[in-house]
Design goal:
The chain is an alpha/beta fold. It contains 21 helices and 16 strands. Helix 12 links the parallel strand 10 and strand 11.
Length: 508
């Protein structure tokens, strides 16, 4: 591989994240020399970091470290650099990093302690202080990072290198979030203006674009191969999937090509499903153009179409080759679509808790940071449970009733996010969180979301709940909430409680 031109790839992160190992692997692939600030500092000191730190103190150590790091970052031959975990405490170092491509390698508290304690690291002697230090530093790492690589195996940086090389050639402002799953991982590129700039990844293969008539009036991926379907959940059928597949066949799409889905959840689900089964599977790139898709449906590999008997009854797991997230696409959405997406934002923030819920419960419109926080929450859950057998079921919070409302009303009366808003109110009632339910209802009302549904009886909705595709052994499991940040799946709900919760949101 040719060396990355322009910016050096600089790995930052906490102790034990594997920065030195990542730098060596990436440098080997690029044919470059890996530079390591800790090694260089020990060479200059003529002794170990531990002995100098213990004798001279942390202030003296940080001053020497700053000088060493700044010199490394200025070297004309710097292509791949690993920095010490505390070096970003220097404002001068953070300023110098602006000229480079910065990758944050995350690490779990458990792995960090196991790898760092007892290894001659002066700040890895007391576990409580060690974990506090990790929490303090993480925000700094992420604030300077162009690429966010989650905790994973030690070879993650080498797998991400092709995407990092593509990012290095782009102007500053685009971020990369690496998505992992058991069946494969992929990059999520995030930045305003991505689509208008013509950015696309991967670069190989021809693109067969699937979109809808509304999106095609505003946005293009620059491919002569395009099929624009009618907009709306009611279009997500086996019949339309066949139309897409046949158009792909007539157009000569082969296994080296890819499907590019630009649109909302309907387009993403339909195009992903077509890609999953066409010639037994070809690549798909998701380009989400709605808030629902940018915070939720574009990630995780769930694809499918609806049947009259139930939502997403026909589908396949098919992870994308990449996701390109451009928040500027949301500027062409009507207010109703933005409101529908807001329901998924609230759902994800309730699952995440912590800082994300604190931002969302303030009631403001979702900004880029909130979108990024939502997608990272979903990616973390999918990385733990791709096939929906455990932790991923928490993402169904509010969705069991929402899907039933959509099916009972013929898929054409409510947008998915509108149904999710109503389903969340039911889930919070079933969770026994009445005060939180009232708070969430106020958020939804302020953003123009419905709090009640019409077009079907409560009993009809219950019947569709009982057909839910997650049903096992005759029981439909529910995801319920203890408190923001603590959502657990697998709960049983009595028919009487379910009917009561649904009747409460049935329009009079």
């Amino acid at each position: 591989m040719e060396a990355v031109t322009g910016r050096a790839i600089v790995f930052v992160g906490f102790m034990g994240a594997g920065k030195s190992l990542a730098a060596r692997g990436v440098a080997a692939d690029l044919g470059a020399e890996p530079l390591d600030s800790d090694r260089e500092l020990e060479r200059e000191l003529g002794e170990s970091i531990e002995s100098f730190f213990d004798r001279e103190g942390e202030d003296a150590f940080r001053a020497r470290e700053e000088d060493t790091v700044l010199r490394l970052l200025e070297r004309p031959d710097a292509r791949v650099v690993a920095l010490g975990g505390g070096s970003l405490g220097s404002e001068r170092v953070r300023e110098a990093l602006v000229r480079h491509l910065v990758c944050h390698l995350d690490v779990s508290p458990e792995d960090a302690w196991q790898r760092a304690s007892g290894k001659g690291r002066p700040l890895a002697r007391d576990r409580g202080r060690f974990e506090d230090l990790r929490a303090e530093r993480t925000a700094t790492y992420e604030s300077v990072a162009d690429a966010l690589l989650p905790p994973a195996d030690r070879d993650i940086a080498r797998r991400a290198l092709p995407a990092l090389r593509a990012l290095a050639e782009e102007p500053a402002g685009i971020r990369l979030v690496w998505a992992g799953a058991e069946s494969g991982d992929y990059p999520v590129f995030f930045g305003r203006g991505l689509v208008e700039s013509g950015f696309f990844w991967p670069e190989d293969g021809r693109r067969f674009v699937v979109t809808d008539e509304n999106v095609s009036r505003h946005h293009s991926l620059g491919s002569p191969w395009q099929m624009a379907i009618r907009a709306g959940e009611e279009q997500k059928t086996l019949g339309l999937a066949e139309d897409v597949l046949r158009e792909m066949a007539r157009s000569g799409v082969d296994r080296e090509d890819l499907v590019a889905a630009i649109g909302g959840g309907v387009v993403g689900d339909l195009a992903g499903f077509a890609a999953a089964i066409y010639q037994r599977g070809i690549r798909v790139v998701q380009v989400p153009s709605t808030l629902v898709a940018q915070v939720d449906s574009a990630y995780g590999g769930k694809t499918g179409v609806d049947l009259p008997e139930g939502k997403n009854y026909a589908g396949a797991y098919h992870q994308p080759a990449a996701v390109l997230v451009d928040p500027a696409l949301l500027e062409t959405l009507p207010p109703e679509e933005l409101a529908a997406g807001y329901a998924e934002v609230v759902k994800t923030a309730l699952i995440a808790g912590g800082p994300l819920w604190a931002r969302v419960c303030d009631g403001g419109a979702p900004d880029d940071d909130v979108i990024l926080g939502c997608l990272r929450t979903k990616l973390a859950i999918v990385a733990e449970d791709e096939r929906d057998t455990g932790a991923r079921q928490a993402l169904n919070l509010g969705h069991t009733v929402a899907h039933a409302i959509e099916a009972a009303t013929g898929y054409g009366r409510y947008r998915h996010g509108e149904a999710v808003a109503i389903g969340l109110l039911c889930a919070l009632r079933l969770s026994g969180r009445d005060a939180l339910r009232s708070e969430v209802a106020e958020l939804f009302a302020a953003h123009g979301l419905p709090l009640r549904f019409e077009g079907a009886s409560a009993k009809q909705v219950v019947e569709f709940v009982q057909r839910d595709k997650k049903r096992s052994g005759g029981t439909v499991p529910f995801a319920l909430l203890e408190t923001p940040g603590q959502v657990t799946p697998g709960h049983s709900v009595t028919d009487a409680d379910l009917l009561s919760a649904i009747e409460e949101v049935r329009g009079r």
